[in-house]
Amino acid sequence: MSLIIDTYFGDYPARKKVAEMLFNNGLSVKSGKIFSGDIEVPVSSIARAAGVNRKIVYYTIDFIQKDYALRSIFERLQPMANLKKVGPIVGWEVLELEMDTEKVSCTLKDVVDILSEKGCHVRQIVGEEPLLSDGKIFVVLTRAVPMDILEKMKSIPSVKDITLHTSETDRTKLACNFCKVKACPRRALIKE
Fold first, then answer.
1. Which of 111, 150, 151, 182 has the most CB atoms at less than 10 Å from its CB?
2. Are strands 39-41 and 33-36 parallel, antiparallel or unpaired?
3. What's the pLDDT tens digit per position in 63-84?
4. Could you give all domains of the chain from N- to C-terminal order, each with its CATH number?
C-alpha cells in the first residue's frame, strides 16, 4: 500500500500524511466524509492528529474521491480491534516477532505451523509493515507461551527479534536471554 500512497501523494507531502493516517487507522472515505466504521470522524480531529490544517484534509478527501483507484481502496477500509496492547492486561501473552523484510518468504506460515504443532490457543494474529522499518507479527495467545516455541520461532530465517509481552508484574523474576522480556513469568532454559 505504501507504493500506492507514494505514487498518488508523492508530490503532496501533507496530503500523504493524511492518506497514511487514514489507511493505518482503517478510516474510510465515503461521500466526502471520513468514517471509522459507521461513525463519522470530524475533519478537525483528523487535521489535529495528522498535524496539518483542515484544508489539507479536505483536499485529500477530494483527491481520493475523484480517483477511481483511490476511491475503491479508501471506501472499503475498516477499523479492526487490535488486541496486542490489551492482551497482557487481561492475562494473555503477546509474542512480537520483528521481521527482516528482505528475508521474508513464508514467515506467517512458519509461525502458524509452530503454534499449531504445540496446540497454542491463538486469539489473534496481526501483521504490520511500517513504511520505513521492518515488519512485525503480533500473536495474541490466551494461555502461557511454551518456552520451546521461542527457540523454534528464532530459527525462522526472517525473524530478527522476539519480544514476549506478559501480564507478569513481578520485576524480580529472571528474564530469559532468548527474547526481550521485561519480566518473565517462568525461567526459560533455552540455549542460543
1. 111
2. antiparallel
3. 999 999 999 999 999 998 888 8
4. 2-74 (1.10.10), 87-165 (3.30.70.260)
Q: How far is CA 51 from CA 20, 28, 112, in A?
A: 12, 19, 38
Dihedral through CA 179, CA 182, CA 183, CA 184, nearest 10?
Answer: -10
Q: Is 121 exposed, middle or buried (0-12, 13-18, 19+ CB in 10 A)?
A: exposed
- pLDDT band at 157, cuts 50/70/90? confident
pTM of the complete model: 0.70
Q: How far apart are CA 192 and CA 188, in angstroms?
A: 12
Axis crossing angle, helix 43-50 with helix 13-24, rounded to the nearest 10: 110
Better-predicted residue by pLDDT, 175 or 45: 45
Contacts of 81 (CB under 8 A, 6+ apart): none
Calpha distance 54→44 (Å, rounded): 6
138, 128 contact by CB (below 8 A): yes
- Output 148 or 180, whichever has higher pLDDT: 148
- Tell me which amino acid residue 58 is: Y
* Closest to 99 in 3D by CA, of 140, 141, 139, 156: 156
- 71: phi then psi, degrees, rounded to nearest 5: -60, -40
Q: How far apart are CA 102 and CA 158, in angstroms?
A: 8
